[in-house]
Amino acid sequence: MSKSLLILGGVLPAVQLLRRMEKIVDNIHVIAHENDMIVLSKYGKKITYQSVSDCLPILKKWINDHHSDCNEWIIIPCSELFIQYIHHFRENGFEVFAQSNENLNIFSNKINMYSWLKSLDISISDFSTLSNDLDFSSSKKYIIKCSKASENYIPPFKTKTIYSHYELQKLRTIIPRDNWDNFVIQPLFKKNKSISYGGVWNNGIEIAGLIVNQVRQYPQGITSCAARLEECEAKKTITEVISKISNNVCLHGFIELEFIQNEAGIYPIDLNPRLWGWSNFLISSYPDIPEKILTNNISNISVDLGFNSWCNIWRDLPACFKISKSFWEFLTLLISLLKVTRKDFISLNDIKPEFNGVFNKLRKGK
Description:
CATH superfamily of the largest domain: ATP-grasp fold, B domain
Shape: globular
CATH topology of the largest domain: D-amino Acid Aminotransferase, Chain A, domain 1
């Protein structure tokens, strides 16, 4: 391939993408945190940063060093942090496989995204911020999550359940007032089913897409385990939502839209304009995706739909260990995971990233 590749972020899906890309790309660079899994991979040239505040200067230096050959590179964002920096690459002539800058400003901020979806006549859940009072009567509870990534503030959690006024006030104390608008709060119902759409788009045309159930994803956000969703009313609703979005904006790049189905109905809760946790399920089902991205060719993509579920055991193993009440329960969960785990969950030629990631998660109790 003539194109060179820059991967932004070092999460597990980025490691898997790196391994696929190294087979067809001669020159791959990776910018990631020094503790990210991807740094331990033997593939690609690594450029690391120590703190979030170091990230932008390192990106700008890389851009300056490669500005003269910008037409030879394609940039793929794989972590949420880097979405806010995409415009720096585009302003310097680099091709970025991601949404337009205007769309990213909407997609990467949940509050803006919910308002935008509502303008498209798409049903959404009620939401509020830390500035609003909450009703905790009748055992009501809520979930709070970070609304957008920021280099100026690192949130103390990814998601958290709020059970009382006391916990709400405690959060208001922990989170600086200037950052209250960086969080969104929604009602948490008793019966929640997590369903997601994941797709790859090229200038408004869908290259590939899947709709899946996600096990243990909501509200914990701790799993990659996914199963292809059979035809049902929920799948029809999600397809209609994707159609409304794609008719309104020119989708481009990786995109995941997360939905929740509960007593209130089915509605979108998150939109990720980047690689996501179960993205390797999609790429395993459409193995030509890496080549299509690099060649800008959307025709004749091969399809492998011979499996209906997928799991990356390295991500789920610590979660199962944490939630299991006994060794036998853990063993049962492990066996069930192995049944749906694709053979690409392990690379004997590049084994360090996953083993180190599992060790760190177990050490931190995640």
